[in-house]
Write a structure and sequence with these properties.
The chain is of the alpha/beta class. The protein has a single domain, classed as Pyruvate-ferredoxin oxidoreductase, PFOR, domain III (Pyruvate-ferredoxin Oxidoreductase, domain 3, 3-Layer(aba) Sandwich), CATH 3.40.920. Helix content is 39%, strand content 21%. It is built from six helices and six strands. Strands 2-3-1-4-5-6 form a six-stranded mixed β-sheet, with helices on both faces. The longest helix has 18 residues. It is globular and about 45 Å long. The protein starts with a strand and ends in an 8-residue tail after the last helix. The C terminus is likely disordered.
Amino acid sequence: MAENVRIVLAGEGGQGVQAVAEIIAEAANGEGRQVLYIPDFGVEQRGGVSVAYVQVSDKPVGSPKFKVADIVVALSGRAVRRTRQFAGPDTVFIYDSGIRDVEKDLPEKAGRLLPIPAVETAKKELHPRVFNMIILGALLGATAIVPAEKTKAAIESKFGYKFAKQPELRELNFRAMERGMNMVQFSSMP
């Protein structure tokens, strides 16, 4: 694992980008690591792109700004176009493989492109609302940035009030995360 991991997550408003970023931040914090999470709320509620910046480090994070991310997660075509500038030769670029006509917009300089059939898998196997948990699982599986158990605890913290009302949602979210992890091979961060 790199000493300081820089992550950019982006998607359309309502896709759960900020929730995924918060879960990663809380899981890393629960591990005793230093975390910086910056949400970028624009006009996403009116159809814009929502972006989240997360840094996870074993030392204090020196600056909230960075030009190249270690991990980019894009959940829509507009998100791919908005985040491609953060890709570098060591970047893992994760995106939903169901995004139409995105091939021309994918960053050529990304170290590793990871198309994940999150929306399709969620619709066919689980529930459409948990596709972002599949993406979260793929991010964990591809990078091992935080342990699955710490991530599950962070999901519990974030959505525990919903789980109390509908206990089946807990298992659904955990299954979605595990399904995403199983879609990719574990690898170490550059």
